[in-house]
Automatic annotation (TrEMBL):
This is Methyltransferase domain-containing protein. Transmembrane segments: none annotated. One of its GO terms (biological process) is methylation. One of its GO terms (molecular function) is methyltransferase activity.
Length: 400
């Protein structure tokens, strides 16, 4: 059920209040917020998709600041050649050419997490890089890596630093904003008149299937190329250039600005209206998600049953939200003896009642079967498991 505190909200793109339901599910948060109904609607006027009703903004703020399961808290393996090191480099390669005409400036990365993107930005000596991140853990990790990062929200910098930023970076941020139009309008006041906005959000035309769900409690806005372009132009950004080939098409990445000088030679073309394509994508997603859950239950259930019969010592790799959702399908404590995770901050703690160890402990603990509780970079995780084991360890994935 929708909690009594949930609030219906208008469309952030056009302000409309008429909408039609697209999708509904129930998600675990793994926190004191509890299980939450997620209702996705589409604006009847402009076609933008968003969650409504939804919990109040203070609930979201507490969630992002306190839990170790929120997006900004997730441990990223940034070693050379890893999934995230390649992704950070891809983002930097798209942004940097837009800065060529500037010899100096300030890049502010809002919601910077552990600072992976800031580290990947190779800028001339006249440039400075800063970050702000609501998660205490993630911001501390960034500072430990030598980055200028403070804990907080972008509005904490106002009004003192209004008009001081040359590039405002918002990677995997805008989809989380409770009131995106108002909050982004406040954030962009940090920009100089000729400042640039660098944005990356999930592409709802290609929603990724996962046990944790593309349509989640955290993501309250669901952008397509057209709705993101319309959203930014409504905020006064007349020039919007999209990256033509972000990773696997699952992201929308763009640079936006008000000063045409920064966009000389760039192809600027408004995306076509895609509201019908969005409805089709969400309908297919709902069907595919049902099949995914059925297949995952069979796959994981068969692995657990076989390992029990063989007397294996089983570990789950991943002390995160994916495992919280997996626990709803299978009692993790009845099927595994411990959890493995590459995040040093989680090692030595407990998760879902099980001890958390690093992969370096696999041999010492006698682990001979590992279930990877993740959708992404499973090849990297499997390689990590085998690298730390001197004897055969069977590795099973949740997904094909």
């Amino acid at each position: 059920m929708i909690p009594a505190a949930a609030q219906a909200v208008p469309c952030a793109v056009c302000g409309g209040t008429r909408n039609e339901p697209l999708y509904r599910t129930r998600r675990r948060t793994g926190t004191a917020v509890g299980d939450v109904d997620v209702v996705v609607v589409q604006c009847a006027d402009c076609g933008f998709a968003f969650n409504s009703p939804r919990l109040g903004i203070e609930e979201y703020r507490r969630y992002y600041s306190d839990t170790n399961l929120a997006s900004g808290q997730v441990f990223r393996d940034n070693r050379p050649g890893s999934y995230y090191s390649r992704l950070f480099a891809e983002r930097a390669a798209f942004l940097v050419p837009f800065l060529a005409r500037r010899s100096s400036g300030l890049v502010l990365d809002v919601g910077c997490g552990g600072g992976g993107f800031l580290s990947a930005l190779d800028l001339p000596s006249g440039w400075r890089k800063r970050g702000i991140e609501p998660s205490a853990k993630a911001s501390a990790s960034a500072r430990e890596n030598g980055l200028d990062v403070v804990q907080g929200f972008a509005e904490d910098l106002l009004p003192a630093e209004a008009g001081s930023v040359d590039v405002l970076s918002l990677i995997s941020v805008v989809e989380h904003l409770w009131a995106p139009a108002d909050e982004l309008a406040a954030m962009v006041s940090l920009l100089r008149p000729d400042g640039l906005l660098f944005i990356e959000v999930p592409n709802t035309l290609f929603p990724e299937l996962s046990l944790t769900g593309f349509f989640s409690f955290e993501h309250v806005s669901h952008f397509t190329p057209h709705s993101l372009w319309r959203f930014l132009t409504r905020l006064g950004f007349a020039h919007v250039v999209f990256d033509p080939a972000p990773t696997r098409g699952i992201y929308l990445r763009c640079v936006a600005g008000r000063d045409p000088a920064s966009f000389e030679g760039a192809e600027i073309m408004p995306p076509a209206d895609d509201r019908d394509a969005l409805r089709g994508a969400v309908a297919r997603y709902a069907e595919d998600e049902a099949r995914l859950l059925e297949g995952l239950e069979r796959r994981v259930g068969a692995a657990f049953a076989r390992w029990r019969a063989e007397g294996r010592k089983v570990a789950i790799y991943g002390a995160g939200l994916h495992t919280v959702h997996l626990d709803a399908l299978y009692d993790i404590r009845a099927n595994a003896t411990l959890v493995l995770d590459g995040d040093p901050a989680k090692q030595g703690t407990t998760f879902l009642g099980l001890p958390v160890h690093g992969p370096q402990d696999i041999d010492r603990l006698g682990i001979d079967a590992v279930l990877i509780s993740s959708q992404r970079f499973t090849d990297e995780i499997a390689a990590t498991v085998h690298r730390h084991s001197s004897r055969p360890v069977e590795v099973e994935r949740c997904y094909d």
